[in-house]
Design brief:
The chain has 9 helices and 10 strands. By secondary structure, the chain is an alpha+beta fold. The radius of gyration is 19 Å and the shape is globular. This is AraC family transcriptional regulator.
Length: 250
């Protein structure tokens, strides 16, 4: 365990209103940012990254970034700052990390103890466990990668359109003038994701915003093309590791 770890790892939380902008800035420390609820959109080195609950953004030291809150309600956001001496344990470029439920609970406990002014050996131990969790978190390039490819970009716009969520992926691909095989190959080349996985993530982003706005699970399940609420709940939990009701109660 690193001695005086509280001098090398800092945990803070912030609250953002819809459309609130954080102006471009950078830090000498590494930043790991993630949402306890709501969605933030980042612009990092000319690229757009989305940070929904359960997926955070790792920013190496001196990485300029700006963000905007997308959620209709207040977004509760966490920033974990990592001293440059510890950044060797993480990627040298921006990455998206998956947030496990244990890590979320751990951050809640750290913030509560910090608010109470508790900096005991137990607090230092929590920070060490937090670092261990971040080191082993699954890593992705983007949560919902984008492309400017002339053939793929209009298709992604369709796949992310809530009014078309009731249509199957096969139906949308059949409407295209390009062969399904070619489109699937392009998606792997440009997005490093299958089109079905990309669309599922787009649905999750939409579902999160709608749940936070109070839409019922039954209505949302229908909008997303599910005949039964239970099927939608299973889908949502597979991607977020929580039910719609648990997300609403955060």
């Amino acid at each position: 365990m690193l001695e005086n770890i509280e001098q090398y790892v800092e945990v803070d939380d912030f609250f953002y209103q819809k459309d609130e902008i954080v102006a471009p800035h950078s830090s000498l420390w590494g930043d790991f940012n993630f949402s306890l609820n709501g969605i933030l959109e980042y612009e990092i080195e000319g690229q757009i990254y989305l940070s929904p609950p359960n997926y955070g953004i790792w920013l190496p030291p001196q990485t300029a970034h700006a963000s905007i809150a997308l959620d209709e309600q207040i977004t509760h956001y966490v920033c974990i700052r990592v001293h440059p001496l510890l950044c060797e344990h993480f990627a040298a470029c921006t990455k998206t990390l998956s947030i496990r439920p244990f890590l979320r609970h751990l951050v809640h406990e750290i913030l509560e103890q910090k608010q109470q002014g508790i900096t005991t050996a137990h607090y230092a131990h929590l920070l060490q466990v937090l670092m261990d969790q971040l080191k082993t978190a699954p890593v992705y390039e983007h949560y919902l990668p984008q492309t400017s490819h002339v053939l793929l970009k209009p298709l992604l716009q369709q796949l992310a359109n809530p009014q078309l969520f009731q249509k199957s992926l096969q139906q949308l691909l059949r409407d295209s003038s390009i062969s399904e095989r070619h489109l699937l190959r392009l998606s792997q080349q440009e997005l490093q994701l299958s089109l079905s996985e990309w669309r599922n993530r787009a649905k999750i982003l939409y579902a999160i915003t709608q749940i936070r706005q109070g839409k019922t699970v039954k209505k949302l399940a229908y909008e997303l093309g599910y005949q039964h609420s239970s099927s939608f709940i299973e889908f949502f939990k597979r991607y977020t590791e929580q039910t719609p009701a648990q997300l609403r109660d955060i």
